[in-house]
């Protein structure tokens, strides 16, 4: 039993040491929000509000960086998601989407892929009701066709 407790203590010490060491990895700490270049010509303020609530943290230059985005390894995941989200579609650097891209956005929202589960776990206010999803989809369709 003493050997088991000793082994557990050593594993905990190693785990804490590794956790502290990974805090030194600089990736995921750049929380700069570039300037807003241009936003879409929203079809309504309601569409913008729904898009902001459910998607601006990853799909705009107006990201709110939560406290846990400073702690590795979570910071690595959050940073990667924001960079990837901005690359795929950025409401703050808007360029007219092609029809196929707009369809992909609509499919991702309709199928519940956006916002992703890992985001919703920490941001329950981003969860949209069925009616809000429909309203957002209709608004984004009108917005992207302008």
Strand content: under 5%
Mean pLDDT: 91
Number of helices: 6
Q: Distance between the terminal alpha carbons, to the nearest Å? A: 71 Å
Helix amount: 55-70%
Tell me the total number of β-strands: 0
Shape: elongated
* Alpha carbon gyration radius: 20 Å
- Which structural class best describes the helix and strand composition? mainly alpha
Describe the structure.
The protein is mostly helical. The chain has six helices and no strands. The longest helix has 21 residues, at 2-22. It is elongated and about 70 Å long. The protein starts with a helix and ends with a helix.
Features:
single chain; 146 residues; mainly alpha
Question: What does this entry show, briefly?
Answer:
The chain has 146 residues and is mainly α. Helices cover 58% and strands 0% of the residues. The chain has one domain (2-144).
Question: How would you summarize the topology of this molecule?
Answer:
Blueprint: H1 2-22, H2 45-59, H3 74-88, H4 99-110, H5 117-122, H6 130-144
